[in-house]
Specification:
Length: about 110
């Protein structure tokens, strides 16, 4: 469970599971990374990094999303919003979504 830092009425569902990653050519080959939800900022503070210094899990997901045409998305990975903006699903959110789906029947 994600900490709510004492905010009444906040639940796990109120916290976004996505990072916004925006690429920039200046400063050279950098990415601005920011969780959508401020409750995550203590663990994943907004930052600007050289692309090569992004965590491996972010780089792996971005490499998949980079092959898409905006606004396409890949379930469990994220979405390419525009040429330089990506929404990357935070890894533990995958496990939480899978566990919620176990035992549930899908209808088509």
């Amino acid at each position: 469970m994600i900490p709510t830092f004492g905010l009444k009425g906040m639940t796990e569902a109120a916290v976004s599971d996505y990072l916004r990653v925006t690429f920039s050519e200046w400063p050279e080959d950098t990415a601005a990374v920011m969780p959508f939800d401020r409750l995550r900022w203590s663990a994943l503070p907004p930052t600007v990094l050289p692309v090569g210094e992004l965590p491996d899990w972010v780089q792996e997901r971005l490499s998949v999303l980079a092959m898409l045409t905006p606004p396409d998305e890949v379930e469990g990975v994220g979405k390419r919003v525009s040429k330089d903006i990506f929404w990357v699903l935070i890894p533990h959110a995958d496990a939480r979504r899978e566990s919620k789906g176990k035992g549930k029947r899908r209808t088509t």
